[in-house]
Amino acid sequence: MDAASAPEPFSTVIRTASHAQHTEAEGSTFMSALLGGELGVAAYRRDTEQLWFVYRALEEAAARLAGDPVAGPFIRPELARTAPLERDLAFLGGPDWRTDLQPLPATAAYAARVAECARQWPAGYVAHHYTRYLGDLAGGQIIRGTAEKTWGFARKGDGVRFYVFDGIDNPAAFKREYRALLDALPVDDLEKQRVIDECKQAFALNTAVFRELGEVFGTDGPGRLSA
Ligand code: HEM
């Protein structure tokens, strides 16, 4: 590094480093078909079910990690998504939505990795936390608007509550604070590199879920398996 130039903030480094993976996740054929209005609400429900497994893994660990010096500052109750997801799923699937609910294999692998990081590696947990929650606060708002239009959900109502952060009045300010926490992550450069690698892995795990959803709904793979 040139001695005169300040190091790039970690929030910038991680965003830049994961840009290609973001483009890939965003451009997955399942997501494109879903947001292009080509799929029915069953596909949206199935996607929402997968999110529930992932957020349970993220949030079951939250109370235990709250006091952790690395992951603790990121744990904010206003981010918690399990309860809104459960309201959306009750709306989309009826009161028995939980009965027989199984994650897709890619979802199970994703949730297991989040749980493993939560147990053993708080900085790795931060990589997963960033990949999901900052994404929900940013691109999630585009997905909400499209879902409302495509399947006729009430604005910010049942079906899209996952994308509505009632406890965050100023998302731009919240994201700024979140990036400041990333910039202050109390780990060395080697560990930061491992966090970036885990973030790329987190995006890949999301892409794998989209691929399996695409196989179920006929946008990926040899053909429609089942709905
Ligand atoms: C159709 C799907 C998606 C759309 C339309 C979308 C769109 C966006 C947009 C517009 C931003 C804001 C970029 C900026 O402020 O510079 C963003 C940021 C972000 N997205 Fe996505 N996204 C999608 C899918 C995803 C997925 C699947 C993930 C990962 C699970 C993700 C994770 C993120 C993250 C972590 C950020 C924050 C980047 C940062 O500022 O550090 N996005 N997305």
Quick tags:
single chain; 227 residues; mainly alpha; Heme Oxygenase, Chain A; 11 helices; globular; binds protoporphyrin IX containing FE
- Overall average residue pLDDT: 94
The Cα radius of gyration reads 18 Å
User: Helicity, in percent?
Assistant: 55-70%
The CATH topology is what?
Heme Oxygenase, Chain A
Question: What do these coordinates show?
Answer:
The termini are far apart. The chain has one domain: Heme Oxygenase, Chain A (Up-down Bundle). It has helices spanning 10-17, 19-26, 29-35, 41-60, 62-65, 82-93, 105-120, 122-137, 140-151, 171-183, 189-217. The chain is globular and about 55 Å long. With 227 residues, it is mainly α. Bound molecules: protoporphyrin IX containing FE. Protoporphyrin IX containing FE binds at residues 15, 22, 25-26, 31, 35, 130-132, 134-135, 138-139, 142-143, 203, 206.
Short characterization:
The protein is mostly helical and 227 residues long. The chain has eleven helices and no strands. The chain has a single domain, classed as Heme oxygenase-like (Heme Oxygenase, Chain A, Up-down Bundle), CATH 1.20.910.10.
